[in-house]
Specification:
The complex is a heterodimer of chains A (729) and B (235). With 729 residues, chain A is an alpha/beta fold. Chain A is built from 21 helices and 25 strands. Chain A has a seven-stranded mixed beta sheet, covered by helices on one side. In chain A, helix 4 packs across helix 17 and helix 14 runs parallel beside helix 16. Chain A is globular. The chains are: A alpha/beta (729), B alpha+beta (235).
């Protein structure tokens, strides 16, 4: 029997009715799988689609409210194990990336040699041009993509294999040193589940887990539970970072540590746990950790880290006394030349506290990927050191074809890495992003992909979870423009290079195939049922995930001190660039996020430099003065923000602004502090040590404009001075 | 005002647990998306004319290194004795039977007395017509009016959601269940710091939490009888 589209929809509707049993959440009654045909859309009545947010790699489940075929609002999916119905600011703002006025509306081509301007072309031509380049450059192809999971990852791996290319993941927020440290410490590739909700004592070494670290909504949910979710226990939280970040502001205690000494402090803590607090923990690891934690000088540590020994003892005592202590590291701890070693020392603390695999500790699970997601193959992260090697290769040998998918290395890697030269040296560059960002504008051909609200896909959470979770993405709206599903572009390119590549009609079919074959053994009709109910639910989460028993391998035997770039006399201050809490590395194009006040400064629409009031006084700088910040690489200017929560020897600047091409709301706004960053790499992982640059500052004598939500009602200069000694009359 | 409340089935209120709030601002964007709040732009924002129905207030305490930053989401407190209501010459600002402090946009003549009288700075004035670069306006929520130049606006506790839930409950011949209605900010809050519900139901989560010994209300001494209870942060 041939099933017509009409019958198909009816079957789907029947499945929906079956799902609408009493006891379901109200939204579930209205969850629609697949796009409705026009005649089934009722004006003024909302239809809801379950899908998966793609604004970062966390993969929160969402319900998209659509009316008259337009997406109106994105809500968290209450049933989804990652975010439990909650969503972050970025996820809420995703509708603005769908309706962004500067989205590319069709493929474009640029003639690098003549005018350099982009001209619209047809998809047929775009595919033809890229395929020709791929054919002639077999074996000399490099693809840089944002990290993908599930079917799109599997497809891309197969494609790169076929064309003979190398694939790299690139995400400026990936915390590559942390991943490297985890695989060295535990011999397991992949992020663990940090069980914040079950912890009663949390020590965080620089992790911005309440901003946008790894899976911010799930950490937010867990943090709420850690604080107030248990009737008698309120989890205690200590944060260690040179700057009082938004995450630090939620801590019970903030320890302003000297930049780059996180590992040193971890050594001291480990030493105390082994020597003075050892009776609290059964410790079979003692021997193997002796080398690292054994012979340390606590006085030396206090001087190096600028954390008093009393504070260290208190930390050790509290850690040892807690039932479920947990130590996490990342963010600021990932930004130095000894980052991987530091994080391995931090991992060692968890091993000493015997919380690996325990509730409230560091738990490892098997990946939730389906069997055909190609999880056995690992994709290397494009670290800055690797990018430098790639540039060397492009400049000396035969130039390669460069493919770039939804990432912007030209902007987000520090300018000292000269990613623009990599693009210029490539024989041909194709980009698949939705906007003409700094990287795409250096491409020869730009093929805009669908927004995630317009496309299909499946998603496996980056960090494994206690519940086995695989999510689905389905179109909530019809494509606005002449863009294409990235997976379909890959399929077409593959077939243009080698006809007959993968016998599927479309990427959507491939997703469905992977999904239904993942069930195995059941009849076709049952598979269809499963598929439809999975679409309505937004994915599949059923069993408790399979825990992995992971052993803490030998810790590193040494910890190098972090090195800093720039003479200490000439450049007395540390530059501390941190991803903007509102926009992150890539959200500057969204007006809602531009106008979202940074919580700690209440600043909007720009860049500023945070200076401790005491330091500012020493340099004669007042709030709002334009300050020149100079490193050995050059100088930039930004208005001063007097910030009480920062070490006097550190100046901090948010990263995310300073775009030269990223849509109308971001272009030409603010400055990029990474312009000052002097190349220095984490030894083990090769990630850029963004915290290693030394700077000096000076006032320029000019006043700048800080756009603040919280302003004094009256400026002090506007007050009329009344001398109380003299009678007024 | 408050006297009639006891006979009504609903009296809406909110609890904000400051021990859970992390200042992530998800609520702020959710509110913008739900309520068609304009994008003001850099210039207007610099002049203090950016509109936020909910904002995170930040307070520094102490000096480095013993410094703390504390924050608090502040929205319209939907006061039982609302100072904004009696001063409105055209009854644009009034109290609904279910305890909402409502603003009737098409009555408002923009005298701004209400904004002047609000101790919480919850009311914000539209100095300009709103503008969305096409196709950003496709996102606008058809359930919520777009406010023009000359109109005062404020948090409504997402009244469109409350009314929809009311209709649904009426059709099914029942009362709205606890947790059935959530304003956009409450729905998205990752740490569940915000809780919304019926204060006339003593068993509702919001009533139970509001009785906590950590509870306090903003500028309570003014006698405004706010519908929002804050729970004190513990550190």
């Amino acid at each position: 029997m041939k099933i017509k589209r009409r019958t198909w929809i009816k079957a789907a509707a029947a499945a929906m009715a079956a799902a609408a049993l009493p006891g379901c959440k109200p939204q579930a009654h209205k969850l629609v799988p697949y796009l409705l045909p026009d005649d089934e859309i009722v004006p003024g009545v909302a239809d809801w689609y379950a899908s998966t947010c793609d604004e970062c790699s966390a993969g929160c489940g969402v319900l998209v409210r659509t009316m008259e075929g337009r997406a109106k609002k994105i809500e968290g999916n209450p049933d989804h194990p990652v975010n439990e119905g909650k969503l972050c600011a970025r996820g809420q703002a995703a509708v603005q990336s769908l309706y962004h006025p500067d989205r590319l509306r069709e493929p474009r081509q640029r003639n690098r040699k003549s005018s350099g301007a982009f001209e619209p072309i047809t998809w047929q031509k775009a595919i033809g041009v890229i395929a020709e380049q791929l054919r002639s450059a077999h074996g000399r192809i490099v693809m840089i993509s944002r990290p993908l999971s599930g079917t799109s990852r599997a497809l891309l791996l197969e494609f790169m294999d076929m064309v003979g290319g190398r694939l790299y993941w690139y995400d400026p927020a990936a915390d590559v040193p942390l991943r490297t440290a985890l695989s060295l410490s535990f011999g397991h590739v992949g992020l663990p589940h940090y069980d914040l909700a079950g912890a009663d004592y949390l020590v965080s070494f620089g992790t911005p887990f309440l901003e946008q670290w790894l899976s911010p909504v799930s950490y937010g949910v867990a943090f709420g539970r850690m604080r107030q979710g248990r009737p008698t226990v309120r989890g205690h939280f200590v944060h260690i970072e040179p700057r009082l970040s938004l995450t630090a502001a939620s801590a019970d205690r903030w320890i302003p540590i000297r930049p780059g000494t996180e590992g040193t402090l971890a050594l001291g803590l480990g030493h105390l746990l082994m020597t003075e607090q050892s009776e609290h923990r059964s410790n079979h690891l003692r021997g193997s950790y002796e080398a690292l934690f054994g012979g340390v000088d606590l006085k030396r540590i206090a001087i190096d880290t600028d954390v008093p020994t009393d504070e260290l003892r208190r930390l050790a005592k509290e850690c040892a006394g807690a039932r479920h202590p947990l130590v996490i590291g990342g963010g600021a701890a990932c930004s130095h030349t000894n980052a991987t070693q530091s994080l391995m020392a931090i991992n060692g603390l968890n091993a000493l506290l015997a919380n690996i695999g325990q509730p409230g500790g560091v738990r490892f699970y098997r990946s939730h990927a389906l069997p055909n997601h190609g999880e056995d193959q690992t994709v290397p992260w494009l670290t800055e050191r690797l990018a430098q090697a790639l540039l060397g290769e492009f400049e000396s040998g035969q130039p390669s074809v460069l493919l770039v998918n939804e990432c912007n290395p030209v902007f987000s890697m520090p300018p000292a890495m000269h990613m623009d030269r990599l693009f210029a040296r490539a024989s041909f560059v194709a980009s698949f992003g939705p906007l003409l960002d700094e990287s795409a504008s250096l491409a020869d051909v730009v093929c805009p992909s669908h927004h995630w609200l317009e496309g299909w896909g499946d998603h496996v959470p980056d960090a494994a979870m206690a519940v086995e979770t695989t999510s689905l993405r389905q179109p909530a709206v019809r494509p606005l423009y002449d863009s294409r599903e990235f997976g379909d572009t890959v399929l077409e390119l593959a077939r243009a290079v080698r006809p007959g590549f993968l016998p599927v009609k479309s990427f959507a079919e491939l997703v469905k195939h992977h999904w239904t074959s993942g069930f195995g053994g059941i009849s076709l009709a049952e598979q269809e049922q499963q598929w439809i109910s999975s679409l309505q639910q937004g994915g599949r989460w059923k069993d408790d995930a399979k825990p992995l028993s992971v052993t803490a391998r030998r810790p590193p035997t040494r910890l190098d001190p972090a090195s800093f770039m720039g003479d200490e006399q000439l450049y007395p201050l540390h530059l501390y660039p941190y991803p903007s809490m509102t926009m992150g590395h890539s959200g500057a194009h969204l007006p809602w996020l531009q106008e979202l006040p940074d919580t700690l400064t209440t600043a909007m629409w720009g860049t500023w430099v945070e200076i401790n009031p005491a330091t500012a006084a020493r340099y004669g700088i007042a709030q709002g003065d334009i300050v020149r910040i100079e490193s050995s690489r050059g100088s930039i200017e930004a208005p001063a923000m007097l910030f009480p929560g920062i070490r006097p020897d550190v100046v901090a600047m948010p990263v995310g602004q300073g775009h030269t091409s990223y849509g109308r709301y971001a272009t030409g706004r603010g400055v990029n502090p990474l312009q000052l960053a002097v190349p220095a790499f984490d030894h083990e992982s090769g990630a850029f040590a963004t915290g290693a640059t030394r700077v000096q500052i000076e006032g320029t004598g000019r006043r700048g404009r800080l756009v603040l939500l919280q302003q004094p009602a009256v400026d002090a200069s506007e007050l009329i001075q009344v001398d109380p000694a003299k009678p007024i009359l | 005002m408050a006297e009639a409340d006891e006979k009504e089935p609903y009296r809406w209120g909110m609890v904000v647990d400051l021990d859970r709030c992390t200042g992530c601002e998800a609520c702020v964007v959710a509110c913008h998306a739900e309520n068609n709040i304009r994008i003001s732009g850099e210039r207007e924002a610099a002049e203090g004319r950016a509109i936020n129905w909910i904002r995170i207030e930040r307070y520094w305490e102490g000096e480095y290194p013993n410094v703390k930053a504390k924050f608090m989401p502040v929205l319209c407190q939907h006061c039982g004795n609302a100072p904004c209501e009696p001063v409105c010459p055209v009854y644009a600002s009034y109290h609904t039977p279910d305890g909402l402090n409502a603003q009737v946009y098409n009555r408002c003549i923009g005298v701004r007395y209400c904004g002047n009288n609000c101790p919480y700075v919850a009311r914000q004035f539209n100095w300009f017509d709103p503008h969305w670069d096409a196709p950003l306006e496709e996102q606008l929520n058809p359930d919520v009016t777009v406010r023009q130049n000359g109109i005062m606006e404020k948090c409504t506790f997402c009244v469109q959601r409350i009314r929809k839930a009311n209709e649904q409950a009426d059709q099914e011949g029942r009362h709205i269940r606890d947790g059935e209605v959530q304003p956009a900010c409450v729905q998205t809050c990752p740490t569940s710091a915000l809780v919304f519900g019926n204060r006339n139901d003593p068993k509702s989560q919001v009533s139970v939490m509001a009785r906590s010994d950590r509870g306090f209300r903003l500028l309570e001494s003014l006698g405004t009888d706010p519908a929002v209870t804050y729970l004190k942060r513990l550190s």
